[in-house]
Design goal:
By secondary structure, this protein is α/β, with parallel strands linked by helices. The chain has one domain (5-191, 217-245): Alpha-Beta Barrel (TIM Barrel). It is 38% helix and 15% strand. It has ten helices and ten strands. It has helices at 27-36, 50-59, 82-94, 114-126, 140-150, 168-176, 197-206, 210-220, 232-239, 248-255; strands at residues 5-7, 13-15, 19-20, 40-42, 68-73, 99-104, 130-136, 156-160, 180-184, 224-225. The strands form two sheets. The chain has an eight-stranded parallel beta sheet with strand order 3-4-5-6-7-8-9-10. It has a two-stranded antiparallel ribbon with strand order 1-2. The protein is globular and about 55 Å long. It binds NADP nicotinamide-adenine-dinucleotide phosphate. NADP nicotinamide-adenine-dinucleotide phosphate binds at residues 20-22, 42, 105, 136-137, 158, 184-189, 194, 211, 226-231, 234, 237-238, 264.
């Protein structure tokens, strides 16, 4: 089973659920994830596992053009020239001639070079080194500025999103620009989210796990989650969420779990060098 595809604003399509790779460095795990049906692999220069992801892709019998590979520009490469250098190095490590999606990892508003960086990504897309381009952790004001100053909206904005941090305003801002919101830490990583009794109750009614309830919730609110698991049994079940549907009452109860608590960095202040 593979995940359905979602339309991007540049005419491309992306799997609505992907495989988060942070902290996984065994190529065989990527081979197994692809074998389980994952077609989107989400890595980043900062994860220091692009070579291993590339080896997994090379060893998998699934053809390259059936896969959707995302990587991300590190903070010390913001500017007009850094993106070309960094994407070339990422492609070398991945063993690929293009990525499907290249993201600016963080906006770094203090150094204020994200518009210049975005212009460089537009050029890389036009040359075919990245089929689609997007951003990560960009707030509504950062998106407004990118669009006002370059006329090009990102295809994707990858942000922290889970039932404790539902990002209603951010999702509305993304939608205004036709941007797909992709959810990082979709399962709440090391929080107690998956032990929440409301998720257990909803799961019991549908005959699924709390993690499956959460991942289905993402797709039903229009977001594209990229759960990470290094455990085959878990990553297989994380993909098996398309044969049930949450009802409005389930969605309302999950809406009530919001705490506004961030697990990761705050884009206003996060520094990444
Ligand atoms: N753009 C950004 O700034 C940014 C930031 C953070 C993350 N990301 C991306 O988002 C991906 C996902 O986020 P994340 O890794 O932070 O957190 P996550 O996917 O919310 O949670 C991962 C944790 O949940 C566990 N888990 C996975 N499936 C489970 C299941 N079915 N039942 C119980 N536990 C389960 C995993 O354990 P096991 O592995 O032991 O199974 C792991 O400890 C990352 O890998 C990365 O690709 C992007």
């Amino acid at each position: 089973m593979t995940a359905p595809l979602i339309d991007l604003n540049d005419g491309c399509r992306m799997p609505v659920l992907g495989f988060g790779t942070y902290s996984i460095d065994d190529p065989d795990t990527f081979v197994q994830a692809i074998d389980a049906g994952y077609r989107l692999l989400d890595t980043a220069t900062r994860y220091e596992n692009e070579s291993q992801v590339g080896r997994g892709i090379a060893e998998s019998p699934v053809a390259r053009d059936e896969l959707f590979v995302t990587t991300k520009l590190p903070g010390d490469a913001h500017g007009s020239r850094g993106p070309r250098r960094e994407l070339s190095a990422s492609l070398e490590r991945l063993g690929l001639d293009h990525v499907d999606l290249y993201l600016i990892h963080w906006p770094l508003p203090r150094i204020d070079r994200y518009v210049e960086t975005w212009q460089a990504l537009i050029a890389l897309r036009d040359e075919g080194l990245a089929t689609s381009i997007g951003v990560s952790n960009f707030l509504p004001e950062h998106l407004d500025r990118l669009v006002a100053e370059t006329g090009v909206a990102p295809a994707v904005n990858q942000v922290e999103l889970h039932p404790y941090l539902q990002q209603a305003e951010q999702r509305a801002a993304d939608e205004r620009h036709g941007i797909v919101t992709q959810s990082w830490t979709p399962l709440g990583r090391k929080s107690n989210l998956l032990d929440h009794p409301v998720l257990a109750e909803i799961g019991a009614r549908h005959g699924v796990t709390a993690a499956q309830v959460v991942l289905r919730w993402h797709t039903q609110i229009g977001a594209a989650p990229i759960p990470k698991s290094a455990t085959p049994e878990r990553f297989r079940s994380n993909l098996a969420i398309f044969s049930f549907e949450l009802g409005q009452d389930d969605l309302d109860r999950i809406a009530g779990l919001e705490t506004g608590h961030r697990i990761g960095g705050d884009p206003r202040t996060h520094e990444e060098f």
